[in-house]
């Protein structure tokens, strides 16, 4: 008499394999299933369940089919479980592998593969299965190490191995190389972001508003915000570098993945094969500005009252000096930490600083080189607004084609009247929005063209730049002006009659 034995087929293909052979993963599972069904047929097993999953074998918590199988095995539902190899059941840590093998042993459930049947209540089979589990873990570590070495070697050669390109670039693959090439429509925006931030002292939020007002979106077609701008400003890839190990991934005891940022000292930074969009000097200047703006001199929307805010630093503790107002006496410039630096009258510091700057810049001419830089900046703005207008006009042409298609669908009765009216209304609103953007960009373009003509007419600029400070009644404008001339000023006053200001100018005479 033939005894029919109930079995379950378990099929697993690792997610790593899926990434490498995405189109073949389902086909591989199908072939494995056919092999195990043939095996069950030859041995007169009754297959009552087939469980399939495409997932890594190193964590039980992320394998719902395996958890379900272990519960059924614990309930003694099967004579055995068919799989292609014992490591298909799992090759994670020792605790999880021990749990799997212990469940099969206690329930007297066999592990059946095409080349061997494992009875874990047999001492030899138990030792052999433990040895194979150990080798499976070892193999996983070796494969992981090889993959990591391959990635690092590819990065060291300047290849870009991340799946998605950063904003401003496209991925190009040729001759076993994978590198970035500039995307014209986006690379110009990257250059403008750095220019606005480092040259015009425009903050990340205002840059985001400016791009949104011009109709530009991120490469995921979302509006810009200060975080997306800051991500670009902080990314060294725009200087021609490739970075790796910026983050580290680990799993907790439940198998959940966590991503944490690594210290910059642990980053891997190498020269890439791609073209840089900005210079190293521009990038470093942006990082310096970012560092100085981490603690805003004026939190929230409070009005600026100190024209030297964020400029003067304590020589002893390197903290920013602040303006302390008083009711019955002059405002003082003070250091809030108890480092021993004495305070001074603000008017004394302001006058001293401006006089020293006046002296420093007294013989500083506006050179032909500076004229060229100003013209280059204006030409860059003109190019930006021209490109914006061209981009918006392309959007209008695409809208026209979409409207034509909507009319066509309505005539062919693919769209009913309600859907037709909704689509037409949506496209008309979008058209109105784009026309408004074109109008704004044309205004900005005319302003830039006018400034360019004014610059050409004025071949010289007043040499006494300091007049700009005193002629302005706007404290924010005074603050921007001082910051455009100086990196910082350090303040040292160990006693009442001993004051030293060290000036760090951006322009060198």
UniProtKB/TrEMBL annotation:
Pfam families noted in UniProt: Recombinase, Resolvase
CDD domains: Ser_Recombinase (cd00338)
Every Resolvase/invertase-type recombinase catalytic domain range: 6-158
GO molecular function: DNA binding; DNA strand exchange activity
InterPro entries documented for this protein: DNA_bind_recomb_sf, DNA_bind_recombinase_dom, Resolv_N, Resolvase-like_N_sf, SSR_resolvase
SUPFAM superfamilies (UniProt xref): Resolvase-like (SSF53041)
Domain of life according to the entry: Bacteria
Signal peptide: none
Domain Recombinase: 166-296
PANTHER family per record: DNA RECOMBINASE-RELATED (PTHR30461:SF23), DNA-INVERTASE FROM LAMBDOID PROPHAGE (PTHR30461)
Record-given protein name: Recombinase family protein
Organism: Anaeromicrobium sediminis
